[in-house]
Amino acid sequence: MAPEALQERRATGSRGRFEFAACALVAFALVFALVGLPLRARADDADPWPPEEQPDVTRLDVERLPPEAIEVTRDLYAHGFYAEAWLGARGYVGGLGDMSNVGPMAAVGVGYELFPWLWAGAIFECSFHGTDAPAPPSPTIFEQLGLLGTLRFQLDLSARAALWLGGEVGAHLLLNDVLETYGYKDATSLGLMFGGSLGGDWHFVNQHTSIGLLGGARMLPSVKGIDDVATIAIHGALYLRYVF
Amino acid sequence: MMRAVLRRMWFAGAALAAFAVGCNPQDYVGDPSLHSFALDENTAPLLMAEDTAFYFIESRFEIPLLRPTDAQIRALYETPAPPFPRSPWVDRDDLPMEVDWTLTNLADTPIDATLTLNGINEFHEYMPSFEADDDEVVIGFSQWERTYALEAFETRGGTIREEELDEVAVDLATVVNGAPNPNLIVYFENQSDHDPRAADYIPDVIPGLVGFRMGLETQAQARLVVEFTVRVRDAGERLVDPADDPMDVWRMPPPEVFVAELLEEGP
Fold first, then answer.
1. Which CATH architecture has domain A80-243?
2. Do B2 and A244 touch (CB under 8 A)?
3. Which of A130, B133, B144, B176 is found 20 to 30 A from A182 (Cα to Cα)?
């Protein structure tokens, strides 16, 4: 190789090495800047993470928020005509109590809520009882039917709980003349019946429906045994009421 | 909507009332409806043999029947039902009845006692035979009878069911229709509907019972009380309450007493 060419080649090779070193230095600095800056920024940043979402004033975001709960009051319930059904038991004290057993009782009632504290209505009821007396005759059953008018006074304890006290007057009919064989004269004739009931009412979270427990007593003055003691009928029941 | 609900409740109430009333079509008959009779130390024996006395008392019970109209009586006579002179006003299924009874020994000594029942229809009533010779008393079977050994102060009770009294009605019609051995027919273990000895004598028309005589038999002095009630189902609408409708009660002619003859052969 000629000496001039060799010298030129040496000069060209040293310049290439310099260029490679410069490019590497720039690339390193660039990578350091890209990776190192966020790390530095996260360590030093005072903002919360993850970032809080601020309420948006747009219509869509307002509707997405939960509505505020409405306070439940009795004003929200239905008022006016009502119907109710009873299911319970009835027994007797005095008179028929000496020769009968406690038996199942059912009733249906309708009425109207005149005021939140005053209710008026009517009740049709029936109950079934076994006889429990020395033979003859052999044990059998008798039924009591009743139709009553009622006036109730209600005390609201809370939005869902209430107490009521009702007076009742009407007529009863005892079926099965087996009662006359035991000395209850005219027991199967239509007779007067009066008394009262006390109840506790619990309203469902529903505009129309409530449930309750009641108990009461009624006098049957015409149902007397040979000892001339009148009969008192005592009842207890679970009821379901629907206000239209 | 509310009107529809109220209408449904009204129908439900009416159906409930009808169900309650319809469940109980039976009547305890009589005023008072508890009947009783007793045998005590003052009761004279009906029959005496050499070493045997036979005590027997009865209580007669008749159902108050609705009086048929003249036209109905004529219609009954226009349709004879042999061996009876006319068709019965009370048919076999018109007045099914049950008798609930108790038998109480009021004495402090045990006693054997027999409770008996003999039927009455519009035409006949059954009378068992009683015979005594020097040695013994022979008693025919009643249409229904049960013998009980009662301890001191013991009370027994029971029910004579509808089907037993129906058998009494059939037996009464059968024996008056010429069955040769009434004691065989009325014996309580012989059932007319599957006894070939009775089948030929059962008439086509069987009058229903309109009453019965309930009795008590012993062979020693005793202090016994029988109490009973009669429960009737007025299926044929033949029952009337004398207290409410005294003019509607039928004063029917007294039935003929059919006295059963004792034969040598037992059942």
1. Beta Barrel (2.40)
2. yes
3. B144
CA-closest candidate to residue B229, choices B56, B39, B36: B36
Give every residue of chain A whose pLDDT is below 50, as ranges: 1, 6, 14, 37-41, 43
Contact flag B24-A81 (C-beta cutoff 8 Å): no
Q: Do B5 and A108 touch (CB under 8 A)?
A: no
Strand partners, B117: B144, B214
* pLDDT tens digits, one per residue of B116-131: 999 999 999 999 988 8
Three-state helix/strand/coil letters over B107-137 = CCCCEEEEEEEEEECCCEEEECCEEECCCCE
A-to-B residue pairs, Cβ atoms closer than 8 angstroms: 63
Q: What is the reported pLDDT for A24?
A: 65
Question: Across all residues in chain B, what is the average pLDDT?
Answer: 87
Which phi and psi angles does B79 have, rounded to 5°? -125, 80
Q: How far is CA B4 from the centre of its chain?
A: 52
pTM greater than the 0.90 cutoff: no
B154–A contact, CB cutoff 8 A: no
How many other β-carbons are positioned within 10 Å of the β-carbon of residue A55? Answer: 9
Is the Cβ–Cβ distance between B217 and B112 less than 8 Å? no
Judging contacts by C-beta atoms under 8 Å, the chain A residues touching residue B26 are 176
Which residues neighbour A209 within 8 Å (Cβ) at sequence distance 6 or greater? A203, A240, A241, A242, A243
Distance CA B59, CA B213 (A): 5
DSSP string over B135-183: S-EEEPPPSEEEEEEEPTT-EEEEEE-HHHHHHHHHHHHHHHTT-S-HH
Structure token digits, residue A99: 């020769």
Contact B5 A181 (CB under 8 A): no
How far apart (Å, rounded) are the C-alpha atoms in residues B54 and B116?
Answer: 14
Tens digit of each residue's pLDDT (9 = 90 or more) over B125-152: 999 988 877 777 888 999 999 999 999 9
Reported ipTM exceeds the 0.90 cut: no
What is the Cβ-side half-sphere exposure of residue A150, based on CA atoms within 13 angstroms? 29
pLDDT for the residue numbered A56: 63
Closest CA to B29 of B248, B236, B234: B234
pLDDT score for A114: 95
Q: What is the mean pLDDT of residues B199-203?
A: 91
